Amino acid sequence: MIEKFTITTQDGFTLSVTKFAPEETPIAGIIINSATAVKQGYYAKFTQYLAEQGYLVLTYDYRGIGESCVKNSRDPRLSMYAWGEQDFAAVIDWSISNYSQLDWHCIGHSVGGQIIGFATNNTKLKSIFCVSSQSGYWGHWDSLAKPKMLFLWYLLIPLLSKLLGKVPGALLGGESLPAGIAQQWAYWGRHADYIVDNKGKPIRQGFSRLKCSIKFMMIDDDKDFAPPKAVMALRRFYNNADTSLDTINTKKLGEKHIGHFGFFRSENKSNLWKLPLNWLSDFA
After folding, report:
1. 70-108 pLDDT per residue, tens
2. Are the CB atoms for 131 and 42 separated by under 8 Å?
């Protein structure tokens, strides 16, 4: 059963949420954290698959994205940090309040594995499964890709944010990114510590607070968005958690390309979607 509804964050934002419920009593609950500028609908088939395996699953759109968009793209409440501190935290609160009998897990894609560290209630999660989640610091990319990352973080994103009040979705391969979110993203990408405050001091308290099991899935042909150094750097943020890292070898799977977004496409159902299920089965 699929149900759409809204929840309100502590700072007054209305978020669009979709619940995928199994026919029988749920095994556990899963929150899906989307990638940057990606609408929750992108994960619908994957989410439906998880529900068919007995899980209660929630997807949602971050503030400024998809069905949680706002008219004023320069709203000062729009930030990437708020995606975790406010939005993800609100979804966790709703999940625990309405289904307290379930263990709750998170599957984070790209930035969806970063924002977990911003939610003050993240310790309520039983486990975390990250797909292509990384630090966005430009220095983690190889020598050929560094100029592109420098161009994005220092010029293109700051300039478009200032001129247009957003970064057009056509440049991101997804939704347009409101100014405040894009500017903070670029600011972080210019810092070796990546997620930092306005004075450049690393933000790590919420990451260090987590002690649960976290699986990082790295994809060997995802070098444009999540190269190995970037994935391993984010893993180190969760310094008190029980972390592990696996690499998906595209050639062994017989795939021509998976990249940053392919994990959640239905053509990879037989090869890849069993991986988070295998992970979750250890906590049932």
Report:
1. 999 999 999 999 999 999 999 999 999 999 999 999 999
2. no
Domain positions in the chain are 2-137+204-281
Average pLDDT in the chain:
96
Looking at residue 256, what is its pLDDT?
Answer: 86
**Protein fold of 2-137+204-281:** Rossmann fold (3.40.50)
Alpha helices in the chain (DSSP H): 44-52, 80-82, 89-98, 146-151, 157-164, 169-172, 179-189, 205-209, 228-237, 250-253, 269-272, 274-281
The pTM score is: 0.97
